[in-house]
User: Fold this.
Amino acid sequence: MRRFFLSDKLTTDLIVTGGEAHHMLRVLRFAVGDQVVVVDPEGQAAVAKITKTADSEVFLSVEQKLEEEQEAPITVRLAQGLPKSDKMDYIVQKAVELGVSEIIPVAADESVVRYDAGKQQSRRDRWQKIAAEAAKQCRRTRVPVIAPVQDLAQVLSATDHNTQIIVLYEGQVPLGLKKALAEKTGSEYLLIIGPEGGLSSREVKLSQERGASIVTMGPRILRTETAALAAITAVMYEHGDLGG
Assistant:
């Protein structure tokens, strides 16, 4: 059954507009009597039946609330250095499938890609759409937020002091990710991944001053998109919900 995200809280009778209504009517060609799963901003899901349609509106009646718990028991935010090409599309899609709650595009010192304000917003809109589609596909009850593009100093200053900060670094460091996860227990994590050129020494120092653990993923150098997804998987497996 197709899943759609609501902008308002779940009630007995609903009106869906905007992009979700367009997708129901113009793309999927739904009609009166068809059933869908709807999820509100608080994560409450329900089965609803289409009772009426208009040019840009779909009227629904809730038939059954669902008791779903599809979200990870920990909060993982990904601060990803802007990569080249369309790699960010792939990272966003897969990170959402793995359970992250927020993705922060970082204009890192070594990022080759540089967006002006207009391009930043258009890219953010694109990534948010990819996040929503990925959340639907893997039956999540929340759509992860794509934050505005920012530099690492902004990310760190906005991070709560209870959050465990882990920086993946391709240099020779004594601390491995496995040991860091054993030591950095908690319910909230921020993973910082550099772009293709890695993080600069300035950014590493800035992270250390904020109390971050600088870790290695092992003897092999991973591509930025590989490192991001491998790190998310490791955190979720160790402290989250992958593997039961």
About this structure: The first strand starts at residue 3 and ends at 5. The helical segments are 18-27, 87-98, 117-137, 152-157, 177-183, 201-209, 224-239. The mean pLDDT is 94. The longest helix spans residues 117-137.
